[in-house]
């Protein structure tokens, strides 16, 4: 259950990156966003209604599982958008 929860949370972070994520820098290299009032975060209503996590049995010792869910999701969302609209995605965030 812990691995499943970590993957689901990582997928949420990946979707946030694809739709909203983006930290911008002002002149001089200072981050423009300071908190949640000026950095959009994925809302629960934007999450998929169900996420299927399939675990592959292994005899190897466990390692971290939080990041693997985040990394491929932005690309998957961008590919789905391109397939749906016929327009290639050249940058993120989409939203």
List the helices and strands and how they pair.
Blueprint: H1 2-19, H2 66-85
Helix pairs in contact: 1-2
Strand content: under 5%
Number of helices: 2
Gyration radius, rounded: 16 Å
Order of helices and strands: HH
| Low-pLDDT sequence parts | none
**Range of helix content:** 40-55%
Strand runs, count = 0
Brief summary of the model shown:
The protein is built from two helices and no strands.
Features:
mainly alpha; globular; 95 residues
Written description of the protein model:
The protein has 95 residues and is mainly alpha-helical. 40% of the residues lie in helices and 0% in strands. The chain has helices at 2-19, 66-85. The longest helix has 20 residues, at 66-85. The protein is globular. The two termini are 31 Å apart.
């Amino acid at each position: 259950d812990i691995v499943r929860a970590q993957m689901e949370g990582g997928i949420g972070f990946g979707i946030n990156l694809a739709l909203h994520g983006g930290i911008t820098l002002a002149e001089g290299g200072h981050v423009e966003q300071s908190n949640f009032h000026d950095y959009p975060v994925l809302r629960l209503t934007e999450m998929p209604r169900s996420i299927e996590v399939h675990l592959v049995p292994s005899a190897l010792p466990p390692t971290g599982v939080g990041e693997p869910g985040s990394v491929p999701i932005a690309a998957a969302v961008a590919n789905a958008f391109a397939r749906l609209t016929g327009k290639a995605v050249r940058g993120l965030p989409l939203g």
